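Cont'd.
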Amino acid sequence: MRDLLDKLLLLKRTATFSEVATDDLRVVAQELAQETCFAGERLFDLGDPSDRMYLIVEGKVGISIDTDPAAKEFISTLGPGDCFGEMGLFDDLPRSATAHVLVDSQLLALDKFKLRGLIVSYPELLLGLLRGLSHRLRGANEMIARGRN
Amino acid sequence: MRFPQKKQSAADYIRSELLIREGEGGTLAYFLALFFLLGLGLALGRGSANALFLKHFGVAYLPHVYLALSLCLGLSSLGYAALADRIAPEKLFAGMAAVFAAVLVIIWVLMRTGATDLAFPIYLVNFGVISEVVLLHATLYFGANFDGDQVKRLLPLALAGIQAGELSGGLVLAGLSVLMPMKDVLLLWVTICAASVALIIWRHRRYGNSPYTHPPRRGSGALRAAADQLVQGLRFARQSDLLRYSSYGVLFMVIAVFTLSYSVMTIYAANFHTETELGIIFGLTTFVGGAVTLLAQIFFSGKLLQRFGVRRMNLVFPLTTLASFAGLILSFTLPSALLAAFNQSVIMPAIRNPSRNLLFQALPDYMQGRARALSLVLVLPLGILTAGVLLQLLRLGNADWMLPATGTLAALAYLVYSAKTNRAYLGAVLSTMAEKLYIPREHMGALDTRRDRELFELLARGAAHADEQISITYAKVLMDAFPAEAPRIVLERLQSAGLRTRDQLIRLVVPKLPETEKTVLHDYLRTSDPHQQATILDILFVARDAVARSHVRVCLESDNPRLTACGILGVHCYNELELMDEATRRWNQLLRGAQSPSLLAGLDLLRRRPDETMFDAAAKLLVHPEDRVKRAALLGLAQFASVDAATLTPLIGTLLHAEDHTVRMAAVQCALQLAAGECRKHCHQALEDRHPRVVQAALEVLKQLDGKDFVATSLDWLDANEGSPRAQCAMVELLLKQPVPSGRLEAFVRSRLGAAMQIAGALRLVEKACKQAQGQKSMELLALALRESLGRIVALALTALEGLEDRQLVRTVRAGLASRDARQEARAFEALEDLGARDIAAALRVIFGRGGVRERGSVEAAGPSLGTISDVVDYFAQGRDAWLQDCASFARRGLMKGAA
């Protein structure tokens, strides 16, 4: 139970799942798979198929958009509680960046087909996801407006 | 339950009395200080300008000053409107103070050097302009620092700062009149302006810009943009009753007030002759008026507005203005003049101005600035101009009674338009919220299809679209909207459609096809695949088409399961007695087949033509590995007149937990075959399903089960509070489609709000515990779950409220409360209170954390007292909500671990 609730709280803190009700989120948390990866590994390369989203439980992951997957110039470095690869859950487009494991890390992965299966059974899950995406879009719009002004 | 209350400190008491909430004190103190300076300057300006003008020119020239003031006010207001959107409110305030200070210095130099006597009327006109523009901007600036609800509570208090300044200014003026020449008072005003500028700069350097304001506009053409805004305001006034009536109201108010003011000045001029006497009387009236207004604004205005509502309070000033004119008609002497001055200096700032500001909050945000611009640039100057012209004419007419009579007529017109404004207010609140929150109006779907050829052509083009999915979507709408003409269009599209699309289009069009056109289906039979042939023949057999009858035997002998099922259907439709045995044999074959298509065809037939001899075969299929077969078996069995309930009960119980929601839905539908108690138990269980279609199916079954007792049994179930808020909400939505006793519904709304208040109280305790024990995940999760539960219960109560009040209005209020926009939330509360549901609004205020200490204490909630975090955890760990139970148990373990 504790493990499940920890996962649930991690999910709830991400922008994408922040608007999903906790009791709906419970079924998503059950589908999170634990992955351990080691410093120097690459979780995925730019152009790979997007098949899952990752949540960092422990460790550090660097995101690079260099066309050379081996390049280690990161546009952001993510830590515990951060999530990445979430857009691939919805848009089916190839990965737009490469993810490098910087230190030994514990991750939680959510398979996009599992999520889609859950959405069919729990339609309110989708509404929560849409609300989360909509908030992000509003945030982006506000940033653009602020930039213009 | 009464929520636990701490012993109040003196500061808490003052905050509670003055309706100040946590976090508002600092900003409010700043505005009080700024407004104090503003009031101080205005009091000195008003008294000195009037005294100097009366002494050096005389009351006879006052109408000329009004004419000049109308022109100057119009122009300066246009200038202000041009700048208001382009400069941040704090910068504009500081800028205006600096410019006015410079103008005052110039006027003082002109007076002191004696260059021109015109300096005195210029000073009076200048005061008139400053007082209007700066006071308007002061409220706008205040509104940019608080949300709508805060403005309603705190603006009267902040405006008390102006009064405090005015009364101090009055006292200072009365004293200075004796000590120094009146002309030098201008320099004191200049100093006050400089102090205001310094205060504004300090505040915004330290705390940043005003939060509730749009980024300033950029680009050239400020004046043109202001003129455009004015035109937009005028256009909006045509649509908005609130703006139109309030503009007429302001016009007549200005005429009445300026007429009143002229009368008062005439009496003063007749009674006081020297600059010092005039200075003292203006100073003292300002002091007394300011003191009374101050007390009223601090202790009464906000509370009166909350107690009586903005609409009743909006009528106070027109009535007191009428009373003032009545006094002048009865006796044109100093006591009547003092009462009239009291009306202007007390009732107007304490009651009329806050009410008007709140009325303007009902307009859409983007229109509020335009509405104010319209009032200041056009309505106010027009009113002053009219008053000036009228007073000049009355002076020429030289009849004493005409002056108060004209004022009385203007005040009457003001009263009438204020009443009309009130009637338009609630509509404006709701319309603004609906616009902001995108609430569709009901009955929008009812199109006038007879007239709308354009729509028909659009749909026809869509139905003919090359993309088959688009074509089907448009064809569906077309068939619904234009049933007489649509079949022709859809049949044309059939010619070029692929097999799958053709099948869908046939199903769509055939039921609405006129008899004369059904021959076209025979043509399609020849070119179709077996699947489509089955679709067409099915339709023709059901319609007992004579030509199609020859196909029955062929179908029955077919190897294709759908055609076979179609043949069996044909045997029954045409009552082909000699084929009946063969049909039964083939049907049994289908239901005992090894392949799913065969089973599905047989079961689909069972759904349409229930045959109890097939029960065993169908029941066995409830454990088939494929979900679609189980679903079809359930749907088939659901149509039976009677079944072996003992066989079905355990199977349905299992299938209610199937992974596929369509199977769960079918299981609910089939539950109607079970004993009433068993069926009700399964349906209540299905109401908790996470798929809305399963919930809907359960509701439909319950409705069939209970028949005419459905409303009563459902209300009993709701009162017992056995379902989750989601399940109850679904039930209430269905109940609202039929007549429900309003007393029981009202009691339900109150009981749910009581429960919500209890959760809100518990949530506050849990959030506090979260802050104290940061990182305690169990408590954080409990807070999240309680917050969600609270949201659902409030949604449930508001859904039920739709059955008691105007549905569209409640929906708009609900959207406003869910908007997370403080202004929309405040409007939602305003609308609720105007509904007359004051206690419901009060409960919602407490739930949304907007209630004051007293409000929280005065609202009773149901359930046991939850004074400590352990009470909260224990209470919800034993509650009925399964998820809250889990979260509370988890939190209890966390608490015990922490204690250990």
